[in-house]
Amino acid sequence: MNNAIALAAVDLGSNSFRLEIGSYEHLQIHRLEYLKETVRQGNGLDSNRNLTQESMERGWACLARFGERLRGFDPQRVRAVATQTLREARNRDEFIDKGSELLGFPIEIITGEEEAALIYRGVVSQLPATDERRLVIDIGGRSTEFVLGQGSVAQSVASYRIGSVAWTSRYFPTGAITAEAFQTAEIAARAVLDEALDTFRPGSWDVAYASAGTANAVGETLAANGQGQGVITRAGLDWLQQQLLRAQHLDRVKLEGLKEDRRPVVAGGLAVLRAVFDLLGLESMQVAQGALRLGVLYGLVDDEQIGDIHTASVLGLMQRFGVNSVHARHVAETAQQLWLQLHSGEAHAPASLAWAGLLHEVGCRISRSNYHRHSAYILEHSNAPGFTPAELEHLGQLVLGHRGKIKKMEAFMHRPDHALQLLCLRLATVLCNSRRAPDLHGVELQRDGQQLRLHTPAGWAQRFPLSAQLLHEEAEAISKSDWQLLLQLD
Question: pTM for the complete prediction?
Answer without folding.
Answer: 0.65
